[in-house]
Amino acid sequence: MRKVIENQLKIGQVDISNIQIDINCRDEIPKLLLGLQSIYSDQQLRNEIFDTLKNIVPKNVDTGNGRPGMDLWKILVLGTLRLNCNWDYDKLHNIANNHKTVREFLGHTIFEFDQTYALQTLKDNIALFTPEVIDEINQVVVKAGHNLVRESDDFPLKGRCDSFVIETDVHYTTDINLLLDAVRKVVFLTGRLCNDLGITEWRQYQHIFKKIKKQFNFVRKLKRSTSKDAAKKAKREQLIIDVASAVCGSG
Predict the structure, then answer these.
(1) How far apart are CA 186 and CA 184, in angstroms?
(2) pLDDT per residue as tens digits for the range 60-96
(3) Which end of the chain is more exposed for a tag (fewer CB within 10 A), N or C?
């Protein structure tokens, strides 16, 4: 059995539309809760989103019978916080059990200290909050936002988003790196083309590139001479040129 939300307030429970949120806090949680509170306070918008939330219940589950499951509103609140704050389930578990304002949004009173969520319960229920359902809710919320703030010539609609760094394989475009990229592309394209055409001379092209990579690593570790002796500096420069030339000639 699953309800969208429990309509009957309990003793000590604050209605979601009346929950006090710290608007001066710069953390992301109050901002997200303000958005959820705005959704809840707009009855038409709330009904549209609740209709969408009903789709997350599996088809083989009777929503009117059986033991109570997590309310769909709670799944929306916790799923929204997890995705937008980029939390793992351990972080979500801690917040759901200890954050006063979040627990008010989940319908808990100050007297329900013993009513906590198990980690596996959160995993099983938040997993129902699929990307397809999120996309449907996003469309409804964005449409409501456009109706709330109408675009005009004097006040064009503008948006802002934050970005963050992710791990990539991009490296500094030094001469030696560009040289290795060029050699690698030539060797692999030649080797694969020979394989397609049945030419066997390049069947060890991957082994060839490994040898080139070893020479590349050797070149990369070479440092230019800091000696004041012109002869030593010239000798070191020539060594670097010779090794780099060997890399080009290995293919």
Answers:
(1) 5
(2) 666 666 666 788 889 999 999 999 999 999 999 999 9
(3) N
